[in-house]
Each structure stands twice: as C-alpha cells, then as structure tokens.
C-alpha cells in the first residue's frame, strides 16, 4: 500500500527537476507528510482490527463459559433428580419387602391355627 502511494509521489518529484530548489523542497516535504499520514492511518487500522478481533474473541469465550456453566448446572440438577428418584425407589422397595414379610407372617400364623 505504501509503495503504491509513494510511487506517484516519486514520479512527481522527478518530473519537477527543472523547478526551483524551494519548490522541490516543498514537494518533498509534502510527500513526507502524505507518507506519514498513510503510515499513521494504516497503524490505526491495524489497531482497530486487532481490537475488534480481541472483542470478538472475548465475547465468544464468555459465551462458551456461560454455556459450560449452564451445562454444569443442568447436569447437577439431573444428578439430584436421579438421586431423589433412587431414594424413592429404595424406599418403595423397602416398603414392599416389609409388607411382603408382614403378609407372610400373617399367612404363617393363619396356617398354625
């Protein structure tokens, strides 16, 4: 990019070889000012692109962190629900065993009469 801008300026500087030294100096100074402006603008553009990339990466990272946290929370809730379900099933099995034992005892007593 710099080379493309400096090339016409160099051509202009060569073409004014017949001009006065003052005109040549002013043209050189103008070319230097344009080159400095181009460099500054390019530097700002690079900084802007880097900053935008950093912001985009940060946003993606935050979104991934939030998604991971939601998955962790959902897994914790599912685990707790499974534990509650297992506890209820265990209690139901205990009740069924106790009731079956009571029924067998009752049947045994009735057979002894």
TrEMBL record:
Keywords: Signal. Residues 76-95 have a biased composition (Low complexity). Residues 1-23 form the signal peptide. Residues 62-113 are annotated as: Disordered. Residues 63-75, 96-113 have a biased composition (Basic and acidic residues). PROSITE patterns: PROKAR_LIPOPROTEIN. This is Lipoprotein.
């Amino acid at each position: 990019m710099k080379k493309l801008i400096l090339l016409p300026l160099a051509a202009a500087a060569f073409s004014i070889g017949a001009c006065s030294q003052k005109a040549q100096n002013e043209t050189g100074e103008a070319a230097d000012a344009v080159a400095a402006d181009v460099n500054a603008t390019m530097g700002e553009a690079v900084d802007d692109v880097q900053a935008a990339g950093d912001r985009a990466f940060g946003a993606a990272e935050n979104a991934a962190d939030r998604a991971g946290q939601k998955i962790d929370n959902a897994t914790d809730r599912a685990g707790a629900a499974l534990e509650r379900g297992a506890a209820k099933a265990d209690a139901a099995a205990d009740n069924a065993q106790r009731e079956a034992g009571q029924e067998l005892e009752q049947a045994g007593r009735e057979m002894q009469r």
